[in-house]
Design goal:
Helix content of chain A: over 70%
Largest sheet of chain A: none
Number of helices of chain B: 6
Structural class of chain B: mainly alpha
Number of strands of chain B: 0
CATH architecture of chain A: Orthogonal Bundle
CATH topology of chain A: Helix Hairpins
Largest sheet of chain B: none
Radius of gyration of chain A: 17 Å
Oligomer: heterodimer
Shape of chain B: globular
Strand content of chain B: under 5%
Order of helices and strands of chain B: HHHHHH
Distance between the termini of chain A: 54 Å
Chain lengths: ~110, ~160
């Protein structure tokens, strides 16, 4: 049986990898992929907690799983919008490099 | 720790590293697929069959396909040159610092959990449609608004070159 803490460490590691991708990448599509990694890290944490802590204290009704379902829903909505914005960016500016997206930079 | 968890965690993390380190965008999408399917395996270890199914269907199917579409539609000659920006050492330091803090926090006070257990589908559905009914409806509204917004943003407007 794998203790809960190993799932939490896996989740932290995956989140950190995604954070590095968001900070270091320049292509907007790659940044979106890194955000998906971070959302999955959060989901691992939620689901591991939901299945290991069921019935302890206020952790009841497997709320973590339901929240994970919502996270997946919001991730899908976010991805659709982000792809639309990237396509628009590519059409009007001819690039998906976020460093060149400086129209609103002060 | 079971060997199954070790294998799945390793393939999740390797896929994630591939996403953030490879220079080829299509390879990054395939590494992301590997990572997401491994996460579905992690859900199975946690006896969360429903979310494993959803993970494979939505992430492994829909999201990867949409991402590959985006890569293909925005493919320009610049892709080989776009890789990391100049502040990548700072990004690595920030990520490692956050990782160290989180790992220390998790490791020094490990939660006392029970063995992994999971609800039947009916329990999950009951929870979703009673306790979480209002967030569920709001989520459907959010999806609707986001998709209409995506159509309006991405379509070619009238009189616009396209």
């Amino acid at each position: 049986m794998t203790p809960l803490v190993y799932f939490q460490l896996l989740s932290a590691a995956l989140f950190v990898i995604g954070l590095y991708g968001v900070l270091a990448r320049r292509s907007a599509v790659l940044i979106i992929m890194s955000i998906e990694l971070m959302l999955n890290a959060v989901n691992i944490n939620l689901i591991a907690a939901a299945s290991h802590l069921q019935g302890i204290g206020s952790f009841v009704y497997f709320d973590g799983q339901v929240i994970a379902i919502f996270v997946i829903t919001i991730a899908a909505a976010e991805l659709g919008l982000a792809i639309a914005i990237i396509l628009r960016m590519h059409r009007t500016r001819g690039t998906v490099d976020v460093d060149e997206m400086n129209l609103m930079k002060w | 720790m079971t060997w199954l968890f070790v294998v799945l965690a390793a393939s999740t993390l390797l896929g994630g590293l591939g996403v953030v380190l490879t220079r080829n965008v299509v390879h990054a999408a395939l590494f992301l697929l590997m990572s997401l399917v491994s996460v579905a395996g992690i859900y199975l270890i946690l006896f969360t069959e429903f979310l494993a199914l959803v993970q494979v269907l939505i992430y492994g199917g829909a999201i990867i396909i949409v991402l590959v579409f985006a890569i293909m539609l925005t493919r320009t000659s610049e892709y080989p040159h776009i890789s990391d920006n100049r502040q990548w050492p700072l990004a690595a330091i920030a990520a490692l610092a956050l990782g160290a803090v989180m790992a220390a926090a998790f490791w020094t006070s490990p939660p006392t959990g029970t063995a992994a257990q999971s609800p039947a589908f009916s329990e999950l559905a009951n929870s979703l449609f009673t306790r979480w009914a209002i967030p569920f409806e709001v989520a459907s509204l959010v999806l609707l608004v986001a998709l209409i917004g995506a159509i309006i943003i991405a379509r070619t407007g009238n009189g616009e070159e396209g």
